[in-house]
Write a structure and sequence with these properties.
Elements: H1 8-23, H2 28-35, H3 39-49, H4 54-89
Length: about 90
C-alpha cells in the first residue's frame, strides 16, 4: 500500500465519514478499508483528532511545528553557551 500524508482537514473529514459508517453498522475493519487506511491508523487518528474541528486540527499542527522550531533554537543556544564556557575556561 502506498504511503500517504493526510492533512489535518482530510483526517477530520475521513473521521466524520468513518463515524457515519460505524453508526450505520459497519465494522472498524470495513471503515478502514473504505477510507484506505489501516485499522491502527484509524484508532490513532481517533485518539489524536477525535472530537476536533478542522480549524482545531490545523492550529494543533501549527503549534507542533512552532514547538519543534523553538526546541531547535534552544538546543543551538545551549550548544553556543557550552562552547563559550569551554573557551572561557581555556579547555580547547
Amino acid at each position: 500500500m502506498k504511503r500517504r500524508h493526510h492533512s489535518p482537514e482530510q483526517i477530520i473529514r475521513k473521521l466524520a465519514e468513518g463515524d457515519r459508517l460505524l453508526n450505520e453498522g459497519a465494522s472498524v475493519e470495513e471503515v478502514a478499508r473504505h477510507l484506505e487506511v489501516t485499522p491502527s491508523t484509524w484508532h490513532r487518528w481517533k485518539s489524536q483528532y477525535g472530537g476536533m474541528k478542522a480549524q482545531d486540527a490545523k492550529r494543533l499542527k501549527e503549534l507542533e511545528l512552532e514547538n519543534a522550531r523553538l526546541k531547535k533554537l534552544l538546543a543551538e543556544a545551549e550548544l553556543d553557551k557550552a562552547m563559550l564556557k569551554e573557551l572561557a575556561e581555556g579547555n580547547f
